Structure formats: C-alpha cells, structure tokens
C-alpha cells in the first residue's frame, strides 16, 4: 500500500512555458461592455454560438450574460485577451497562444477540454459549451465588428481599439527637465530656500528641522515653507513627481538601470520615511544643526552638482549612492526613505486631486500598464484583476499621472474628490456595502 | 491482501483492461501529460492500465491524483478500454479521492494535485506594500468553480463600480 500523504511539489513543465512578450501598446482591440445598457437579452451569446452555422445556438456561445439578482441587471463575461494570459500558463497541452495582435486563441486540435484554463482564468472566460467542449473568444478572428458587438441591440458591447496618446509624458518630462536645470544651474538657493523676487520658497522639511534645531519659530520661514505645503494640499505630492530635481534624476536612472535586487521587507517599508523624518527632527534638536540637510540628496543635487558647488567633497557621493537604490526598484528612495516626501505625504492626504482607476472601465486583465509604469509601485494590479477598483493612496501617489497617460482604455483618470478621514500608510478599506 | 487482489480482478473485468493493446493513444490524449514527469511507462493512462493488468495488487502512483477526469483516454481508446474509470477506481481505493468542491455550488473541482500544479504555475500578484491583507493567494482564488467564479466576478465588478 502506497502512502501519498505528503504533498509533492508539482513536476516542472516538460516544455518551456510560453511567456507573453511585453510590448508597448499597439492598439490592441478589446471588447467593452456597459452593464447600464445591457438588458440581458442574451443575443450576444446566441450569435456567438451560431457563428459557424448561422443558427441561434446560445449553448455554444463564448460570451455569457450573468444575471445579477441584486440589481436586476446583467453582466456579460467574455475573454479580455490578457497580456499575460493565465489560461495560457494553465493549459497543460499548450493549446492556448497569444498572437502578435494580442488575441489569445485556442487551438482546438490540441485542446482536450480538461477545463484548467477555466479554472485559472479570473472570470472563467474560456467556457464549457453545451457539447462539453471548452471554447473561448477569438474576437471573431479579426472580423470587425465581432458578431456579438454587431448583434447587441442596445450598444452595450463595443469594440475599443484603445488609444496611444501620450501627451502628459510630453508635458511632464520638459517640466521636470526645466525644473531640474533651473534649480541646479540657474536659481540660487535651490529648493532648500529659494528667493524669487518677493517670494520666498523653502523646503518644509528644512524649515521643520530649523525650528527644532533653533527652538524658535520665525513667521517668515513658516510662510515660505507654507507655499510648498499649500502645493501638497492642492495637488498631492506633485512636487515629487513634477518638480523635484532629485526625482528627475531618479526617473532618468530608472529608465537606464535594470532592477537587480529587492530591499528586505524591513527596509522596503513605506513607513520608513516617516521614521527618517522623525529622526531628522530629533537629530536637529539634539545637534542644533539641520541634520538631514547635510545628506539630503535633493539638496546635494542642487548644491554639489550645480553652478554653486558650495560643498562638493563627500556630498558628491550622496547622489549616486542613493540613486543606486533604484537598482532595487523604481524611486526606492522616494518610496521608502525621503523625509521631504514624507512631510508632503502628511499633507497630500488632504488633497482633492487623486488618480482613480475604475475597474469596470479597465476590464483588461493583466494589461497592467498602469502598474508597470507607476514609479511608486502603488497600483495594486491584483485588485484590478479581481474586478475591484483599487484605492490609490493619496500619501504615496506623486501625481506624475503616468498611469493616466498610459492607460489605453481611459480607466485611469484624474479625479477631484475631497478625501475622507486621513489614513496612515495603509490603503483605506473599500466600503464593503 | 486477497481482498485487494480480488478488487484488482474486478477492476480488470469492469474496465475491460484485457482489451488494451498498449497503443498509447490514451497517453497522447491525456490532458495532464504536461504534469507527468515521465510519459512513457511510469505514469500515463497506458501505464496505469498496464500496471493494473500485470501487477499483483493495486499500486497507486502519485500522478494518478492529477487526473482531471476529462475522459479523453476512454473516449480515444480504439479497443474500448476505460482508463478513466480505472483511475477513478484506483483513487477511491487509495482513499485519496478527497474532492475539492466549489465553495458556492458544491460542484466538483479538478483534483487537488491538479489545482496545486495550477497554483504553482500561475503568476503571483505583485504586492504594493500598502495592502491591509496579504495579496490573494492562488489557492483561495481556486475555490470557486468556473460558473460560480463568473457570477462572483460579475457581482464584484458591478458592486464596485456603481
């Protein structure tokens, strides 16, 4: 008698698993569904099933309207033609493939109808038909419009080719470059304390350290720090995403260096930056100097590398050292350690400007371009895959709007909405109701 | 021991194993071929049939547990052997016929070993470091049958977006 109680590790695949290649967006079409317009008539399913024969065969349909008893409406489930199809990974026969146009097709010659693709898919889009076959949408093999779109009497189904426009990037990079050049080469005093005619702008973290070290509060310095804080109250951490000279360097470095290691969890904790901020304030109070400012990479960029080059020496090493953290992930410094960003984060929680990624508008699983481009790594792609609208943390979002720019289906948008109660570090729980 | 030999005799008769000509068409059709270490004789429908024909008493290989009961082997067999039924019987005999059922409708899911294989193969969610809970595990996600998952997904997305 054999005993097989110990769970065995699954055997490695005898063939190399197929991996979808990550390409830039090339106008891949996807079906779009609007539940508000759907009456649940099921015509899409019938014409899909009868595509070959011309008859009405709902049993063979590859699109399925699911009635929703709570709202009385209906929601059609169909294949999203994922960028990294889970069905493709799951198919033990290698029958599923993704072609150059991004259409995930199933080779019925290889398929043995085992149903693992259904089990692997997040919305079970490969469907077992009335004959017991597993079939999936192939976007009518390139026919436009697909049969279901053609048949829908209410226009609930549409074919969306997506968009490629990238104007925010065209705006942000020049702004970042100009800001970088101005703050390092032209303007005296950089972000730390900038005098523009009658206007004094100072780094809030620097001012806070000043207050702690000198134990005096000067109204003028508080007001000069207040301008950047006001910016954070209005547009979140827009400073980090659009103006910060060191952030610009990190963005450039991120485009150049590969990601080779991961920070250990205790280092890669987003709450660390608040600790650094508190530590900087305590150290300032103790030493009587602006302790963090001596190693601040933002200040170092402006002071050591610009025309002023007041410090040079050891401070020159700060920038490449901290930029080297980006080998662990995009903007590692900003994510985990930057006390300047931490101070902005305290106020950006109250900002009305947020990025909102609507799961129903998204509906393109494992497109994940928003998560790919996010320099702060705060887009929870798993939530989108599950059909939940993720809560983008206002404290972590640097409103660079890369996600808004890159989303081909206009699911990621800028939204103006007053926040609820501020949360600390963690994403707010979505309302279960 | 005699009892188990008796069972084996019954299995041979009931699933018409004597008709097997070891052509291997069942192995070629087997959906779980990708999960097998060795498709030749160690494990595959053909191997199970041959084993049941020649063994003294039933021996149940680990890989039997990955069978998803698609029935392709039985459907393919030109001689009318029923390897699918044999495998089901072997699993029951092994006491390994633990069945995972859909959390909603209690429909039978693919066998645990196949689900485990699937869980291992599927991509893991990338954590953002902001989650309240750890990201959904693949096994929790594999709890629903396709029909219920479709329904659950539709309910989730319509509730969320409204």
Which residues of chain B form runs of ≥5 with pLDDT under 50?
A: none
Helix content of chain B: 40-55%
Q: Rg of chain A from C-alpha positions? A: 27 Å
Overall body shape of chain A: elongated
Q: How far apart are the first and last residues' alpha carbons of chain A, in Å? A: 52 Å
Assembly annotation: heterodimer
Structural class designation of chain B: mainly alpha
Count every helix of chain A, treating DSSP H or I runs of 4 or more residues as helices: 18
Distance between the termini of chain B: 64 Å
Number of spatially distinct domains of chain B: 2
User: What does the main sheet of chain B amount to?
Assistant: none
Work out the number of β strands of chain B. Answer: 0
Q: Work out the count of structural domains of chain A.
A: 3
Bulk shape of chain B: elongated
Total strand segments of chain A: 12
Q: Beta fraction of the residues of chain B?
A: under 5%
Please give the largest β-sheet of chain A. Answer: 2 strands, antiparallel
What are the secondary-structure elements of chain B, in order, as H or E? HHHHHHHH
Main-sheet strand order of chain A equals 1-8
User: From the alpha-carbon coordinates, what is the Rg of chain B to the nearest angstrom?
Assistant: 20 Å
Mean pLDDT of chain B: 79
């Amino acid at each position: 008698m054999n005993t097989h109680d110990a769970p065995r590790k699954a055997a490695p695949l005898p063939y190399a698993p197929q991996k979808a290649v990550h390409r830039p967006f090339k106008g891949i079409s996807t079906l779009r569904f609007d539940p508000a317009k759907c009456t649940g008539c099921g015509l899409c399913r019938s014409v899909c099933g009868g595509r070959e024969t011309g008859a009405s065969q709902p049993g063979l349909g590859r699109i399925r309207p699911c009635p929703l008893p709570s709202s009385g409406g209906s929601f059609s489930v169909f294949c999203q033609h994922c960028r990294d199809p889970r069905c493709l990974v799951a198919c033990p026969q290698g029958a599923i493939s993704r072609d150059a146009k991004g259409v995930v097709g199933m080779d019925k010659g290889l398929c043995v109808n085992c149903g693992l693709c259904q089990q692997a898919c997040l919305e079970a889009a490969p469907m077992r038909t009335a004959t017991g076959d597993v079939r999936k949408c192939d976007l009518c093999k390139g026919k436009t419009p697909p049969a279901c779109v053609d048949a829908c009497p209410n226009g609930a189904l549409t074919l969306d080719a997506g968009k490629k426009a990238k104007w925010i990037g065209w705006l942000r990079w020049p702004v970042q470059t100009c800001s970088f050049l101005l703050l390092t080469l032209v303007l005296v005093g950089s972000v730390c304390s900038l005098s523009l005619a009658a206007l004094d702008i100072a780094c809030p973290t620097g001012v806070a350290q000043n207050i702690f070290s000198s134990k005096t509060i000067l109204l003028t310095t508080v007001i000069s720090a207040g301008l950047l804080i006001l910016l954070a109250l209005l547009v979140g951490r827009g400073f980090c995403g659009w103006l910060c000279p060191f952030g610009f360097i990190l963005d450039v470095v991120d485009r150049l260096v590969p990601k080779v290691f991961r920070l250990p969890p205790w280092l890669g904790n987003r709450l660390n930056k608040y600790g650094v901020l508190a530590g900087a304030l305590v150290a300032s109070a103790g030493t009587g100097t602006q302790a963090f400012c001596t190693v601040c990479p933002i200040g170092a960029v402006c002071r050591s590398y610009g025309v002023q080059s007041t410090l040079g020496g050891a401070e020159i090493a700060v920038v490449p050292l901290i930029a080297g953290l980006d080998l662990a992930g995009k903007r590692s410094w900003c994510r985990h350690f930057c006390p300047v960003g931490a101070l902005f984060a305290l106020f950006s929680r109250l900002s009305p400007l947020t990025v909102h990624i609507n799961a129903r508008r998204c509906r393109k699983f494992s497109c994940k371009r928003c998560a790919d481009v996010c320099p702060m790594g705060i887009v929870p792609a798993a939530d989108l895959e599950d059909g939940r609208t993720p809560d983008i943390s206002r404290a972590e979002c640097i409103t660079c709007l890369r996600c808004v720019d890159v989303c081909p289906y206009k699911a990621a948008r800028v939204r103006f909405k007053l926040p609820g109660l501020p949360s600390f570090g963690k994403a707010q729980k979505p309302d279960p109701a | 021991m005699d009892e188990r030999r008796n069972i084996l005799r019954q299995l041979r008769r009931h699933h018409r194993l004597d008709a097997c000509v070891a052509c291997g068409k069942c192995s070629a059709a087997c959906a779980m071929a990708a999960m097998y270490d060795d498709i030749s004789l160690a494990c595959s429908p053909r191997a199970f049939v041959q084993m049941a024909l020649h063994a003294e008493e039933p021996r149940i290989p680990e890989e039997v547990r990955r069978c998803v009961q698609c029935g392709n082997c039985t459907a393919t067999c030109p001689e009318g052997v029923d390897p699918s039924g044999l495998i089901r019987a072997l699993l029951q005999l092994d006491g390994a016929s633990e069945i995972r059922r859909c959390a909603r409708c209690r429909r039978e899911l693919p066998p645990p070993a196949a689900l485990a294989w699937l869980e291992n193969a599927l991509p893991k969610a990338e954590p953002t470091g902001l989650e309240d809970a750890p990201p959904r595990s693949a096994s929790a996600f594999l709890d629903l049958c396709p029909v219920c998952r479709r329904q659950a997904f539709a309910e989730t997305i319509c509730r969320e977006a409204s």
